[in-house]
Design goal:
heterodimer; A: 319 residues; mainly alpha; ABC transporter involved in vitamin B12 uptake, BtuC; B: 253 residues; alpha/beta; Rossmann fold; 2 domains; 6-stranded mixed beta sheet; 10 helices; 11 strands; membrane (chain A); transport (chain A); Iron complex transport system permease protein (chain A); cell membrane (chain A)
Chain lengths: 319, 253
């Protein structure tokens, strides 16, 4: 058995075990007979499990794409103003057309996320590269400004409650009929994987990538669309999940490097598994109450972020 | 043959290149020298089709680099930028492998594997092949980048200050390697290299192009350009020429 096959068998088993656990855990017992087992799984448990896996996979991939695009691995979709921009779009559509179908809300969120992320990329081109900490800080401030605009808008229009829901990602509200948009992430994941080599080339910087024959502008736009659409999908259906796009790509990169053709599936599986694990933990830690998955992941993610900062492989020495 | 005609380039309102006209021979090493800000890097970027000039034309073996598809251009000319800041954790062999991207676009074949193996050996990278780039020293990373550009297997290889970060032995070895692969022959490449070390140009270059303030001051054989009066005009400092084993070395005074 090759090392690669062993790795995938192990990962597949772990993901299947997590998914199995997620299907079994919940307020109602699967086998008490009060509710039909099949009905419970189809309406609540399977959607919730699938939503956690899809959201985790999507955000992890979006993290890789944005990191390669700006050549900075301390950046993730939550540090680029993307979620705040998506929320602004959602607020806008809620104000203008409160009864709009989810697809239209989704479209508005994606469009504003695109504009917001493009704004961040424009900023990133003007930030000197010497200190990698600078860009995430700029992203934090940029997101803060967009977020404040959103809060002001929500405050003046009595929509602050919505903002609270979008800001804190959790899966307790996921039932059949309310999460299916997330399957769009599966399609976007395939698109990103098809462009794996091109996205790796983005990570070499514009001059080197173009010298190797990459259509840089086109690839950057493709990445931008993927990041904005994935983030918007997650915000609309389950709310923001910070740190996922930072943790999964960085752990895989430390372990296996940055050849995305080989490693993107690992990043996707890692993000999916970690978000599902966070959701399961949130369900069992304080039964019968639930802790939002974003909160559980935030504790874990912040720890990993600190580790990344202090245990950096370091700017390679000169010599 | 690279033909540059009346090439002008401006960054915003700041003119960088003025009506540059230049012919580059299709074999050997051409060294591009000149003070900081002379426009050497910009000229390389324009030739490689990466910076679109405001006026003028570039032809690489008759090819207009701005009119052909990106990958076609990348099979004709390779540019290695100055001090590339690469944050990627690609392994050395993977990076060099990406030099083949314009040839295979994602589906490498046996020929690609052969060229990559040859490039790794040529630049003494076999022992480092599995190392991630961010664990290398500046000089090792520089050699990996040159190997990538080499693996691109283009008739034209443009290198912007490749000796940065290299110690004397590796600098010498790189110039010797460039010298070998630029000799006339079926696989001979043309190498255009920006050098700050004038003596590296004196020792290894067949031709020298001296630039100042966005203009070409002199373009000829190394011995004709590396003369005290030309160097003094270009660099605004005094030089003495010291003959050494049939070459002319340069000392600043």
């Amino acid at each position: 058995m090759t090392a690669g096959l062993r790795l995938w068998l192990g990962l597949g088993t772990a993901l299947a075990a997590l998914a199995g656990l997620s299907l079994c855990i919940g307020a109602a017992s699967l086998f008490s007979g009060d509710l039909g087992t099949g009905w419970l799984i189809a309406v609540s448990r399977f959607p919730r499990t699938a939503a956690a896996l899809l959201a985790g996979m999507g955000l992890a991939l979006a993290g890789v794409v944005i990191q390669q695009t700006v050549q900075n691995r301390l950046v993730e979709p939550a540090l680029t103003g993307t979620p705040e921009a998506a929320m602004l779009g959602l607020l806008g559509v809620t104000l203008i057309a409160p009864g709009a179908a989810p697809v239209w809300k989704m479209a508005a969120a994606t469009a504003s996320a695109l504009i917001g992320t493009a704004g961040f990329l424009a900023l990133a081109r003007r930030i000197p590269r010497q200190d990698p900490m600078l860009l995430p800080l700029v992203g934090l401030i940029y997101g803060g400004i967009l977020g404040s605009a959103g809060l002001w808008l929500a405050w003046t229009t009595d929509l602050v409650q919505y903002l609270g829901i979008w800001r804190l990602g959790e899966f307790s509200g996921v039932v059949q009929g309310r999460y299916e948009l997330l399957w769009g992430i599966a399609a976007l994941a395939l698109l990103v994987y098809a462009a794996a080599d091109r996205i790796t080339l983005l990570g070499l910087g514009e001059t080197q990538a173009r010298s190797l024959g990459l259509n840089y502008a086109q690839t950057r736009t493709l990445g931008l669309v993927a990041v904005a659409a994935i983030t918007a999908l997650v915000i609309v259906t389950v709310g923001a999940l910070p740190f996922v796009g930072l943790v999964a790509p960085n752990l895989v990169s430390r372990w296996r490097g940055d050849n995305l053709r080989a490693n993107l599936p690992l990043v996707a599986a890692g993000g999916a598994g970690m978000v599902l694990a966070a959701d399961i933990l949130g369900r069992v830690l304080r039964e019968p109450y639930e802790i939002p998955a974003a909160t559980v992941f935030g504790v874990f993610g912040a720890g990993v972020f600190l580790w990344l900062l202090y245990a950096a492989p370091g700017p390679a020495r000169n010599g | 043959m690279i033909e540059v005609r009346s090439l002008s380039y401006a960054a915003g309102a700041t003119p960088i290149l003025h009506e540059v006209g230049l012919d580059l021979a299709p074999r050997g090493i051409t060294a591009l020298i000149g003070p900081n800000g002379a426009g050497k890097s910009t000229l390389l970027h324009c030739i490689a089709g990466l910076a679109r000039p405001g006026a003028g034309t570039v032809r690489i073996d008759g090819l207009d680099p701005f009119a052909v598809p990106d990958r076609r251009r990348a099979r004709q000319v390779a540019l290695l930028q100055q001090s590339p800041t690469v944050a990627s954790r690609l392994r050395v062999a993977e990076l060099v492998g990406f030099g083949r991207w314009p040839h295979h676009a994602g589906r490498p074949g046996p020929e690609d594997a052969r060229v990559v193996a040859e490039a790794l050996t040529a630049f003494e990278l076999d022992a480092l092949a599995a190392r991630p780039l961010d664990t290398l020293s500046g000089g090792q990373r520089q050699r990996a980048m040159v190997a990538m550009a080499y693996a691109q297997a283009t008739p034209w290889l443009l290198l912007d200050e490749p000796l940065n970060a290299l110690d004397p032995r590796h600098a010498r070895d790189l110039m010797a390697r460039l010298h070998d692969l630029s000799r006339p022959g079926p696989d001979g490449r043309a190498v255009v290299v920006v050098l700050h070390d004038i003596n590296a140009a004196a020792l290894w270059a067949d031709r020298v192009v001296a630039m100042k303030d966005g203009r070409v001051i002199a373009s000829a054989g190394a011995d004709e350009v590396l003369r005290a009066e030309i160097l003094e005009e270009v660099f605004d400092t005094r030089f003495e020429i010291v003959p050494h084993r049939g070459r002319q070395l340069v000392v600043t005074l």
